[in-house]
Specification:
ATP binding; two-stranded parallel sheet; 2 strands; mainly alpha; EC 6.3.4.20; ATP-binding
Amino acid sequence: MNIGAERVDYGAHGGDHVLYPDCRPEFVEAMDHVAGIANFEPVKLHAPYLYASKADILREGLAMGLDYRLTWTCYEGRELACGMCGSCRERLAAFAANGVTDPLGYNPDTTAGQG
Protein backbone atom coordinates (compact mmCIF):
# COMPACT_ATOMS: atom_id res chain seq x y z
CA MET A 1 0.00 0.00 0.00
CA ASN A 2 1.28 3.44 -0.88
CA ILE A 3 0.14 6.19 1.47
CA GLY A 4 1.96 8.92 -0.43
CA ALA A 5 4.38 9.75 2.37
CA GLU A 6 7.19 12.10 1.45
CA ARG A 7 9.15 11.39 4.62
CA VAL A 8 9.73 8.51 7.02
CA ASP A 9 10.93 9.38 10.52
CA TYR A 10 13.45 6.95 11.98
CA GLY A 11 14.17 6.90 15.72
CA ALA A 12 17.80 5.76 15.74
CA HIS A 13 19.97 7.63 18.24
CA GLY A 14 23.67 7.98 18.93
CA GLY A 15 23.69 5.36 21.68
CA ASP A 16 22.45 2.71 19.25
CA HIS A 17 25.45 2.87 16.90
CA VAL A 18 27.53 0.23 18.67
CA LEU A 19 24.71 -2.24 19.24
CA TYR A 20 22.61 -2.01 16.10
CA PRO A 21 24.12 -1.84 12.59
CA ASP A 22 20.84 -0.44 11.21
CA CYS A 23 21.18 2.58 13.51
CA ARG A 24 24.62 3.63 12.29
CA PRO A 25 24.96 6.82 10.23
CA GLU A 26 26.27 4.87 7.22
CA PHE A 27 23.16 2.70 7.18
CA VAL A 28 20.80 5.66 7.54
CA GLU A 29 22.59 7.54 4.75
CA ALA A 30 22.45 4.50 2.45
CA MET A 31 18.75 3.89 3.18
CA ASP A 32 17.97 7.56 2.59
CA HIS A 33 19.70 7.29 -0.79
CA VAL A 34 17.80 4.10 -1.70
CA ALA A 35 14.47 5.58 -0.57
CA GLY A 36 15.16 8.52 -2.85
CA ILE A 37 15.54 6.35 -5.96
CA ALA A 38 13.50 3.21 -5.25
CA ASN A 39 10.10 4.75 -5.92
CA PHE A 40 8.53 6.94 -8.54
CA GLU A 41 8.18 9.54 -5.82
CA PRO A 42 11.25 9.86 -3.59
CA VAL A 43 10.88 9.39 0.16
CA LYS A 44 13.20 11.17 2.60
CA LEU A 45 14.50 9.15 5.56
CA HIS A 46 14.57 11.57 8.48
CA ALA A 47 16.63 10.57 11.54
CA PRO A 48 16.65 13.68 13.74
CA TYR A 49 18.32 11.99 16.72
CA LEU A 50 21.03 10.08 14.87
CA TYR A 51 23.80 11.87 16.76
CA ALA A 52 21.89 12.63 19.99
CA SER A 53 22.10 10.80 23.31
CA LYS A 54 19.05 9.52 25.15
CA ALA A 55 19.60 12.31 27.69
CA ASP A 56 19.49 14.88 24.86
CA ILE A 57 16.32 13.36 23.42
CA LEU A 58 14.67 13.23 26.84
CA ARG A 59 15.60 16.87 27.49
CA GLU A 60 13.85 17.87 24.27
CA GLY A 61 10.77 15.80 25.13
CA LEU A 62 10.58 17.30 28.61
CA ALA A 63 10.75 20.78 27.10
CA MET A 64 7.79 19.82 24.88
CA GLY A 65 5.84 18.64 27.92
CA LEU A 66 5.64 14.99 26.84
CA ASP A 67 4.04 12.65 29.36
CA TYR A 68 6.66 9.95 29.88
CA ARG A 69 4.20 7.83 31.85
CA LEU A 70 2.80 6.96 28.41
CA THR A 71 6.13 5.79 26.98
CA TRP A 72 7.78 2.38 27.20
CA THR A 73 11.36 1.27 26.69
CA CYS A 74 11.68 -2.01 28.58
CA TYR A 75 12.59 -5.12 26.62
CA GLU A 76 10.90 -7.49 29.05
CA GLY A 77 7.27 -6.92 28.01
CA ARG A 78 5.75 -7.26 31.48
CA GLU A 79 3.13 -5.14 33.22
CA LEU A 80 5.83 -3.00 34.85
CA ALA A 81 9.22 -2.12 33.41
CA CYS A 82 12.01 -4.32 34.74
CA GLY A 83 14.52 -1.58 35.54
CA MET A 84 17.36 -3.97 34.72
CA CYS A 85 17.56 -4.46 30.95
CA GLY A 86 19.86 -2.27 28.89
CA SER A 87 17.00 -0.14 27.65
CA CYS A 88 15.65 0.50 31.17
CA ARG A 89 19.12 1.37 32.43
CA GLU A 90 19.66 3.83 29.58
CA ARG A 91 16.26 5.38 30.24
CA LEU A 92 16.91 5.74 33.96
CA ALA A 93 20.35 7.22 33.27
CA ALA A 94 18.80 9.77 30.88
CA PHE A 95 16.29 10.84 33.52
CA ALA A 96 19.07 11.08 36.13
CA ALA A 97 21.21 13.16 33.74
CA ASN A 98 18.28 15.57 33.43
CA GLY A 99 17.68 15.68 37.20
CA VAL A 100 14.16 14.28 36.80
CA THR A 101 12.52 11.18 38.24
CA ASP A 102 11.16 8.75 35.68
CA PRO A 103 7.37 8.57 36.16
CA LEU A 104 7.15 5.05 34.72
CA GLY A 105 6.30 2.23 37.09
CA TYR A 106 9.11 -0.25 37.69
CA ASN A 107 8.99 -3.77 39.09
CA PRO A 108 9.64 -3.47 42.84
CA ASP A 109 11.42 -6.85 42.81
CA THR A 110 14.33 -5.41 40.82
CA THR A 111 17.22 -3.62 42.44
CA ALA A 112 17.60 -0.97 39.73
CA GLY A 113 14.11 0.54 39.87
CA GLN A 114 14.38 4.31 40.26
CA GLY A 115 18.13 4.32 40.51
